[in-house]
Every structure is written in C-alpha cells, then in structure tokens.
Amino acid sequence: MTLVVEVKDLYAGYLPGVNILNGTNFYADKGELIGIIGPNGAGKSTLLKAIFGLVKVREGEINLNGESIIGLKANQLVSKGVGFIPQSNNVFPSLSIEENLQMGIYQDPSHYKERLEFVVSIFAELGKRLKQRAGSLSGGERQMVAMGRALMMNPAVLLLDEPSAGLSPVRQDEAFLRVSDINKAGVTCIMVEQNARRCLQISDRAYVLDQGKDAVTGTGRELLNDPAVIGLYLGTLGA
Description:
CATH class: Alpha Beta
Strand content: 25-35%
Structural class: alpha/beta
Shape: globular
Number of domains: 1
Number of strands: 10
Distance between the termini: 34 Å
C-alpha cells in the first residue's frame, strides 16, 4: 500500500494553551476509506480541520505523500489534491447547482466538461437540475452538491465532516452509498461520522478518538464487532 496521509503526535486547538488534539496518530493509504468515530468533543472534526489548515497545529506532523503540509493555505492544499467538505454551510445558496460546481474547478476550468460528466455519473439527480438554485434544495440534496463540488477539482484525498448530519434515515443511507461510490472511483476518503454503525460498515479501517487521542483502531469490521467499542458507543451503535 502507498501511504498518502500521515499524522504523527499531533497537538492542535482553537484557543491559546488549550489543545483539542493531544498526540493524535493517524494514517491513510492510497484508495482507503477511513472512518473516524468517537464522542462529541473528542477532536474528530478538529483533526480534519487541522489536516486542511483550518486549525493551528502546535506540535506534531501532518504529511501528504511524504511531505509536510503544515502551514499551507486551503488553495494550496486543493492544488495538491486535497478536498474538504464541511458539515454545515457547504453550498452557496444564492447560486445555481451548476454555479456551485463551477466553484470547485476555478483553479483549472479547462477540465470543466470532463469533471462535470464524472460528477453527474455519481450524482445523476444533479445533472437534471443544474439551473436550480442551491438554496431551494433539501439537506440531502445540498450534501450531494457539496460532494460534487469537491469532486470537480479531481481530488486524490477527500475529507468529509459528518456527511450524514441532519439527514433523514433514507438520505443518510444515500449519503453513505455516495461516499462509497466516490471511494470506489479511486479517491482516498477520510470520513468523520456520528453514525458510527454505518460509518464502520463501509470503512476499510477506522479510528475511535477520545479526548483528542486515537483510543482504538482496526478494520471497520473489527471495530463493529469489538465489545469495548460497542459498550462505549452503545447509543450510537445501536439500531
């Protein structure tokens, strides 16, 4: 396997002197779908934001293909093939679906047609409604647009912050299916999720974060059947 993303002994946080991540270790190989679960406040979303340069790193390493990316700005990370889909405020509501997708390829518009065809092959519904204003869409439909926009830039690595948040059970299943489809298309996916059971079901490997540290790691199947994980997150893992 080819190592793509590696996090070593990472300490990061928002306020001076207060760390959310406390020595986190994590890696993702090329083509993997990695799930990250854990209680609220464990540092899951902070980990993604630290990788994408949105949270100050105080100690440790974040490497992409063997090179440090600490200190790089979002546009520089995008140019290196890293995409990030935040949990909320992830579309431009006043713009059409097509205009939202165009925002994802502003750095290299020459490949717009090719990338649009790829996005529509995964999100067929979007291709039929390109002129519709994004602000009129449901939560699940907005999530499709956000994923589609991130895919427009042809990312090698996609960071997803709770793609099922706020969605109905049917839309949640659809969101997980699309994440799986994106991964099968060759994109390394790193997904933070509160819906632990569904996350573990589709993940190649997964991490349980607790108090900013990687408490448990293993394959998705191993963690799904781990009595300790089930006991700790019974409310999340229950049907």
